[in-house]
């Protein structure tokens, strides 16, 4: 089988390998599609070379079918359609003991800290599998992981029907958060300076505004009658984005920090104090978030087809990364692992 390996210096190498047979409690998958996310781009740029064991097969957004089951596996049969929840926790640390296994203090993020899905056959523990329904296309099933991120973010933000929600940043995760919040019955506005991303938001049925084109605060005041939004999601990873999200909130509003800010950034704690705001971190997901994500995709509540901009074969994995970075008008790129070179 063919695998794409990250070998450092922004480079991928194709390699023929023998598929590893499943051991006890394991399942071998025929990988169908793998999505490329921002973390994968960071890996390609060498930012995570201290964490990734080079050469490495990466990739954690995927869909596929069961090919073979190891000893003791009874819940899965060849042909079953699946995705993988790529979190492997220790079960022993204080976070795990408290019931927060998904943020385990010794968490192994599969596809980053251990081998991932950018290969035609992938053997994983059965405990990581999430079932995909037959009516959900495998290309859309590959979006389950980023949708699960959005589901978890919206759940952490306690978004309720009829609330007004601001999403700052209209990249893939921001758009998915907006879609999930809308599916929960909220009114949503996306703040995004990029014209193409605003056009995608419009195709998804979302209202998007350009923060650079005028006074964002005035627009939000007009929308909320001057009260502020109930919840704001900071997905831009920028200081202006964080400031805008903080100052958009009503009294006792919720600020959900989704973007990874790699450096300390200023937060207006006086505004947090004055309006009794809640500051909430949101990281990865739980199994229930994954299951909800699959249901939203299967029901069509997430317009997945509008988000997939390009599909490249595994043999062109390097070009797939370049397409995501260099082309304008790209939201999500998938790698088709079924295609032969």
Q: What would the keywords be for this entry?
A:
6-stranded parallel β-sheet, 341 residues, 17 strands, 12 helices, single chain, 7-stranded mixed β-sheet, alpha/beta
Amount of beta strand: 25-35%
Oligomer state equals single chain
Please estimate the helix content. Answer: 25-40%
> What gyration radius follows from the Cα positions, in whole Å?
20 Å
**Shape from CA axes?**
globular
What structural class do you assign from the helix and strand content? alpha/beta
What is the N-to-C order of secondary-structure elements (H for helix, E for strand)?
A: EEEHEEEHEEEHHEHEHEHEHEHEHHEHE
Provide a count of the helices.
Answer: 12
Average pLDDT score: 96
Give the N-to-C terminal Cα separation.
Answer: 11 Å
Q: Uncertain regions: pLDDT < 50 for 5+ in a row?
A: none
| Total number of beta strands | 17
Largest sheet report: 7 strands, mixed
Describe the structure.
- This protein is an alpha/beta fold.
- The chain has helices at 38-44, 94-97, 138-141, 144-156, 172-183, 195-203, 216-224, 239-247, 269-274, 287-299, 304-307, 317-326, and strands at residues 2-8, 11-16, 26-35, 61-69, 81-84, 87-88, 108-109, 121-125, 129-131, 164-168, 187-191, 207-209, 229-234, 249-257, 278-281, 308-313, 332-336.
- The strands form 4 sheets. Strands 3, 4, 5, 8, 9, 16 and 17 form a 7-stranded mixed β-sheet that branches. Strands 12-11-10-13-14-15 form a 6-stranded parallel β-sheet, sandwiched between helices.
- The protein is globular.
- The termini are close together.
- 45% of the residues are buried.
- The mean pLDDT is 96.
């Amino acid at each position: 089988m063919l695998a794409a390996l990250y070998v450092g210096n922004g480079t991928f190498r194709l390699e023929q390998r023998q598929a590893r047979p499943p051991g006890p409690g394991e399942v071998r998958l025929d990988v169908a599609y793998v999505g490329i996310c921002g973390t994968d781009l960071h890996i390609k740029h060498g930012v995570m070379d201290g964490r990734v064991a080079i050469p490495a097969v990466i990739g954690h957004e995927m869909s596929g079918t069961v090919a073979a089951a190891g000893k003791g596996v009874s819940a899965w049969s060849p042909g079953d359609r699946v995705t993988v929840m790529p979190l492997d926790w220790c079960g022993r640390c204080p976070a795990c003991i408290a019931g927060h296994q998904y943020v385990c203090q010794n968490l192994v993020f599969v596809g980053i800290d251990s081998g991932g899905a950018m290969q035609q056959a992938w053997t994983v523990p059965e405990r990581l599998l999430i079932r995909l329904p037959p009516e959900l296309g495998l290309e859309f099933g590959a979006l389950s992981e980023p949708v699960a991120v959005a589901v978890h973010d919206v759940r952490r933000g306690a978004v309720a029907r009829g609330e007004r929600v601001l999403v700052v940043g209209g990249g893939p995760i921001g758009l998915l958060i907006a879609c999930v919040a809308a599916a929960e019955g909220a009114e949503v506005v996306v703040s995004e300076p990029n014209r193409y991303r605003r056009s995608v938001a419009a195709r998804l049925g979302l209202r998007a505004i350009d923060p650079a084109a005028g006074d964002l605060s005035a627009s939000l005041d007009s929308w909320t009658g001057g009260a502020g939004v109930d919840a704001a999601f900071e997905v831009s990873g920028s200081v202006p984005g964080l400031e805008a999200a903080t100052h958009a909130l009503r009294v006792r509003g919720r600020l959900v920090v989704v973007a990874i800010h790699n450096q300390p950034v200023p937060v207006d704690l006086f505004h947090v104090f004055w309006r009794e705001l809640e500051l909430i971190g949101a990281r990865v997901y739980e199994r229930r978030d994954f299951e909800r994500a699959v249901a939203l995709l299967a029901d069509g509540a997430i317009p997945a087809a509008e988000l997939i901009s390009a599909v490249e074969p595994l043999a062109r994995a390097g070009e797939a990364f370049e397409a995501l970075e260099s082309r304008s008008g790209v939201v999500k790129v998938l790698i088709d692992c079924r295609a032969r070179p």
